[in-house]
User: Fold this.
Amino acid sequence: MADTYGGSNRTWASSYQTLFGKKKITHNYSVTHLDSFGKVAYIEVYETSFGKPFGLGGNQHIATQYPKLNKTEFTANASPDAKKYYSSEVGKGEVLTKSQETTKDAIQQNLTNNNTNNLTDQEIATKAIIDARNIFNHNSTVATAPQTTTTTNNNNNNNTAAAPTDPADPNTPADPGNQPVPVTVTSGNQNPKSEQPWAKDNRNLRYPLNHISVYDFIQIYPMQYSPAMIPGSGNPNFSNVNNRYLNADKAGSTIFLPMIPASETSSTGWGEDRLNAIQKEFGSAASDIIGKAGTMSLTKWTSQAGSSLMDAANSLIKNDKEVHQFLTAHFAGKAVSANLLGRHGVAINPNLELLFSGPSLRSFSYNFRFTPREKDEAKEIRDIIKVFKKGMAPRRTKGDIFLNVPYVWQLKYIKGGTDDVDSGTQHPYLNKIKPCALKSFNVNYMPDGSYMTYRDGGSMTSYDVSMEFGELEPIYNQDIDMTKDDMGY
Assistant:
């Protein structure tokens, strides 16, 4: 295994840089360095000369990211835009994602060039994906090494499962009992019986199985996705999410889960913005030029455009020799990617201000521990997991050309106290939630660190389930009604 992965031959495009208030494309690449355990130690981020004036500057090291520490250090080459972007969760996530892709591609290429075990292309691709994931699993310090096969004694009660086999190991014996079985899939539908995530007999599901209705609980059910714009409808307006799902029918089993610590985080987009004197003058000139487009001949418009730009430049200089020198130094510095103006002992006033940039979407994360206490409850838990997994998966259309959007979900915090758990109402002291997409769903089948099953049926003794929902629409001022007896959104 190599100690480093990546390089300038594997770049990606970003748009975090701005020039005169407009976004511009920058090309980046990363170099991933591994520690002695074969895990990612740190990632160096570079900018190429793409998009820079005259291609000057070359490839520059701008940042080093330490995933285990959730820390990013910047070099003197990093611009303010680069620092802002790669300090954000989006920027750090992009570095990790792109670096893992680069690592996977490099491992796959190396396995292809040195295929001593005669692996198939699919086996090579699978092994490259697994190895790259292991490298970037920084929560573990176990070295990435070929897995070995262990044998369990079927004559005792040992609960240790056999480790998965490594397809790259030629000494791994074939297990005829675990060979893949071909499954016929119909076009556009993996389950001919039903696309909707209903449990058997179209029943609703709950955990605990014998839920007492006096307790509060969480109600979740899937709905058919309703698009904001319908092709051919002739209506150019957007419809808000609440109206689209106001009378939506359930598209699957309703799931009732125990109330767990609930929280919400509301945020609004505010960001720093700069507008210096140069941008202001030339921005005004540009607005004037654009406003006159189409109102006169092309020749006259071109002439007036040049005149407007000259007026903007003259307005800045105002027959001041010192200002003229500073502006000359500023633009010359931009041409060679150097702060020449700063070396004159001055800086342009950026007129920094915090400005509203837009709303933000809320996310809701839940973690449940399912511990079946009887055989029927074990089956109920299994069906709950299957409904979530089926409902969040995209559906293939006829001909497999397109994919239909997965089902969306309605979540409610229900106030207990009624005789019928199905007729509960929204909890008046907990927030309401708009329709959501199920963004991630994770199941840990061995939450206690060892493989344990019940003798009666083979169910796991416990399951840890975590899920993250994202609201389809932001919360707006008009959504919160101060006259209603509830917590609002």
